[in-house]
Amino acid sequence: QVDLVESGGGLVQPGGSLKLSCTTSSFGLDYYTIGWFRQAPGKERESVSCISTSDGSDDYADSVKGRFTISRDNAKNTVFLQMNSLKPEDTAVYYCNARNPFYPNYNYWGQGTQVTVSS
């Protein structure tokens, strides 16, 4: 059974920072495009950021550009999402997704980590 595990969520005040981690013991994340998604109560899941397998190019939703940074540490088999200048509207459950670009059936989700931004 594939275990894709997120961690690092929590409660933070507006303007604060959190660093989320996504890792697995089941496969090498460097072969997968990794995406961070989030879902707020009553809203659909939305893409936040992603990082490719090849050149490490990344992409961000307009709402988080300049505040969030996605990165890989292949030695630790971990992908991070550094979140700075957090806003109450960033409150959501954050999910990690691993998708093999050559084998679409290899598409995995973590169980999510709660991020709450509140004073």
Could you walk me through the main structural features you see in this protein, from its secondary elements to its overall organization?
The protein is mostly beta strands. The protein has strands at 4-7, 10-12, 18-24, 33-39, 46-51, 58-60, 68-73, 78-83, 92-99, 107-109, 113-117. A hairpin with a 6-residue loop joins strand 5 (46-51) and strand 6 (58-60). The mean pLDDT is 95.
Please tag this protein with its features.
single chain, 119 residues, mainly beta, 4-stranded antiparallel β-sheet, 11 strands, 0% helix
What's the rounded overall pLDDT mean?
95
Helix content: under 10%
Shape: globular
Distance between the termini: 39 Å
Number of strands: 11
Largest sheet: 7 strands, mixed
Radius of gyration: 14 Å
How much β-strand is present in the residues?
over 45%
User: Which parts are unreliable, with pLDDT below 50 for 5 consecutive residues or more?
Assistant: none
How are the SSEs placed, and which strands pair?
Layout: E1 4-7, E2 10-12, E3 18-24, E4 33-39, E5 46-51, E6 58-60, E7 68-73, E8 78-83, E9 92-99, E10 107-109, E11 113-117
Parallel strand pairs: 2-11
Antiparallel strand pairs: 1-3, 3-8, 4-5, 4-9, 5-6, 7-8, 9-10, 9-11
Question: Summarize this, please?
Answer:
The protein has strands at residues 4-7, 10-12, 18-24, 33-39, 46-51, 58-60, 68-73, 78-83, 92-99, 107-109, 113-117. By secondary structure, the protein is mostly beta strands.
